[in-house]
Amino acid sequence: MLKKYLNANDLNCPLPLLNTKLSLSELNSGEILEITAKTLLHGKILLLMRK
Predict the structure, then answer these.
(1) For the chain, is the Cβ count within 10 Å smaller at the N or the C terminus?
(2) pLDDT for residue 18
(3) Cα–Cα distance for residue pair 49/25, rounded to 1 Å
(4) For the segment 1-51, what is each residue's pLDDT rounded down to a tens digit?
(5) H helices of 1-51, where?
(6) What's the pTM value of the predicted model, to 2 decimals?
(7) Which of 19, 18, 26, 34 is nearest to 51 (CA)?
(8) How far is CA 31 from CA 7, 13, 46, 47, 48, in A?
């Protein structure tokens, strides 16, 4: 199973979401996208997407 990584730590909104959408569109079925990001919302990130 192939794993791809997206580092969105230094990006401001809405770039993390746009880059995530682009990365997801490049994934093949069964591949995993791991995203690293920082947030100012008490450390909580909720990202629900399905390929």
Answers:
(1) N
(2) 92
(3) 11
(4) 788 999 998 888 788 889 999 999 999 988 999 988 876 665 555 555 555
(5) 15-25
(6) 0.68
(7) 26
(8) 17, 25, 20, 17, 16
